[in-house]
Design brief:
Two copies of one chain form a homodimer.
Chain A lengths: L16 H25 L2 H8 L3 H7 L3 H21 L7 H18 L1 H12 L6 H24 L8 H17 L1 H8 L5 H13 L6
Helix pairs in contact in A: 1-2, 1-4, 1-6, 4-6, 5-8, 5-10, 6-8
The structure holds a DNA duplex.
DNA sequence: TCCGGTCTTGACCATTTGATCAAGATTTAT
DNA sequence: ATAAATCTTGATCAAATGGTCAAGACCGGA
């Protein structure tokens, strides 16, 4: 991932009011479109149509389609990573894990499009976020794995593979965004969020209490 | 989903040796390509290239790109559904669930492309499998939910929402195919399968033993 | 061997789509 | 008010791509 995706950084690094405003409008629309149809399945016309700007105008702000994608993806990654960052080694393990799962679930419900965009990117081999995965994400995950291992070592958590626990938490929480149509088809409408939260916490953390 | 996706059913419903052979070759290649790049991101040329047939030749066997996709998707759905079908109400609940999770995980490892194809389809709103989700899948899931509820009722399983348990099992097992690049980036290479199996069983079923 | 049906493909078409550009409209600073 | 900078867009282009077609190669049964 490179930086500097927008266009005008040449002369005045400062962004115009219109500029930053339209960039946000474009990225909002792009998140919707890309997360729904995938990169290849989305067209500039769709994004332009959704945000009420003309196609050439999009190219005024972003030189290439790939730049729009890159920008919206980067904005998403920050959001996506945030909850894990807050896992506190000092807090009570089960409570802290419950808080993390709950926060991840909240994000899934609040920003399903972000989850789907990320899922799509990974599903297709992470062509744009390979360095993110092997860099920042890996470091953070290793740090948090150490925290979980420590909790286990001091007997506050049943022994469990930390990495796979993190995978499981991600998988289950994001499932409700990424597979939303399936979830809705099987529950008959949107599932009740509190019920979902309780069930997810039960299933994921129910077996972690030490004897 | 409609039937009759291939071409020649008109005169002789019987398929030539070459015909059924090439159809399989095409579908195999199509699964690879579609699961990697998505529907829109895949081209007939890619599929043709991968299976060593010419582009017009593909159109000889399948009239439209969508027909190829449909055919490979249908073939995948059968495979995908199979393990759940075998959930036996008479068996020991925890053992039976463990067997199911294990079988699902085996399928994930054996046919990651199938998992990804399905994931991609759902992720993009299930445009081709809506009726499958709301029909056969829903019925089967409701039947199996009843089984789980029964296990709980007779005290052989800790109370847990059956539907969300099924979701969790799907989410976690398929995660290792759908998010394989992320898993590999974080584990540093392919994760050990037996270790993964133990961890997944621990996490998903560890809290289900009744007191 | 020979014939009808099956299979294969090079050349081609029409549409979609990412991207460009020049000309004009609008905003901003002075 | 005015000039400079910024912003906007209709028209257009070139490449990619789903799909067609006619001509020829191949195969299988009599």
């Amino acid at each position: 991932m490179s930086k500097a995706v927008a266009r005008k950084p040449a002369k005045s690094a400062r962004k115009t009011r219109i500029q930053s405003q339209n960039e946000q409008i474009i990225l909002d629309a792009a998140l919707d479109v890309f997360s729904t149809y995938g990169y290849r399945g989305s067209t500039i016309d769709q994004i332009a149509g959704k945000c009420g700007l003309s196609k050439p105008n999009l190219f005024y702000y972003f030189r290439h389609k790939a730049d729009i994608y890159q920008a919206v993806l980067e904005r998403t990654l920050v959001t996506w990573l945030e909850p894990l960052r807050t896992l506190d080694p000092e807090a009570d393990p089960l409570g802290e894990l419950a808080r993390y799962v709950s926060a991840k679930l909240d994000m899934t419900f609040a920003k399903p499009a972000a989850s789907r965009l990320f899922a799509n990117e990974i599903l297709h081999g992470a062509p744009h976020v390979g360095t993110f995965l092997k860099g920042p994400l890996k470091e953070l995950v290793e740090a948090k794995s150490a925290v979980i291992r420590h909790w286990i070592a001091v007997g506050k958590l049943k022994p469990v593979d930390p990495l796979h626990l993190i995978f499981a938490i991600w998988a289950v929480t994001q499932h409700y965004a990424d597979f939303a149509v399936q979830v809705e088809a099987l529950t008959g409408g949107e599932p009740d969020r509190e019920q979902t939260r309780r069930a997810v916490l039960d299933i994921l953390l129910g077996g972690l209490r030490p004897n």
